[in-house]
């Protein structure tokens, strides 16, 4: 596909998701400007990131370190905020902090020291969201901290020095009505924010369920397929 045709396709997709966000926010009496679109560009080339930036996208999300690092380097001339949204290994965390502006997937204490070290090396504060699990306990491959461990994890992040705790992130479990999962998230978040009013960001909602997430108070929706189309490989 030519760059121009791809640009038109991305522009049309962005229009459609911006309309969805606006309708979802308006329907529950929220200001659509409270909801930031994070375009999830995993599996898509840096050329798409460039087109999205031209089309007004300010925030991009990636879930794998090597791919994220390469794309962030290829797009270093653009004024973008890079969100790391994937499962994070502690031996990669310092490297992730060398390009990510926001790390959304902090779900255990072990990640805090290396992220903080990476932020120090870069002399750049990193924003952190704690990923909370909405899965039933014991589910295979479960990512995210248990709700009851969030306070402890939040304290570790706040004490680190170069990390700024901004809020929570979650993924709706497969096979459950996302509205029910996001209702639980909304209650977890209310408790969390009551203790830390400045950590009031909530990253929730993907292409299929952004409406339910906006209803539950999401400030960031992470949209891949709805913006970029079906992923080429996965
Ligand atoms: C891939 C991914 C998304 C985007 O998913 P879509 O369904 O393509 O919108 C959102 N969040 C996370 C954590 C992801 O890995």
Annotation field: number of helices:
9
| Number of strand segments | 8
Average pLDDT over all residues? 96
The 3D shape can be described as globular
* Gyration radius over CA: 17 Å
Strand pairing plus helix content: what structural class? alpha/beta
Report the top-level CATH class. Answer: Alpha Beta
Detail the poorly predicted runs: none
CATH architecture: Alpha-Beta Barrel
Q: Which band does the percent of strand residues land in? A: 15-25%
Order of helices and strands: HEHEHEHEHEHEHEHEH
How many separate domains make up the residues?
1
Strand order within the widest beta sheet = 7-6-5-4-3-2-1-8
End-to-end Cα distance, whole Å, is 21 Å
* CATH fold assignment: TIM Barrel
Question: Which superfamily, in CATH terms, is the homologous superfamily?
Answer: Alanine racemase
- Major sheet summary line: 8 strands, parallel
Helix content: 40-55%
In this entry the ligands are:
pyridoxal-5'-phosphate
Protein name: Pyridoxal phosphate homeostasis protein
Keywords: Pyridoxal phosphate
InterPro entries: Ala_racemase_N, PLP-binding_barrel, PyrdxlP_homeostasis
Pfam families: Ala_racemase_N (PF01168)
Sum up the structure in keywords:
234 residues; alpha/beta; TIM Barrel; 8-stranded parallel β-sheet; 9 helices; globular; binds pyridoxal-5'-phosphate; Ala_racemase_N; pyridoxal phosphate; pyridoxal phosphate binding; PyrdxlP_homeostasis; Pyridoxal phosphate homeostasis protein
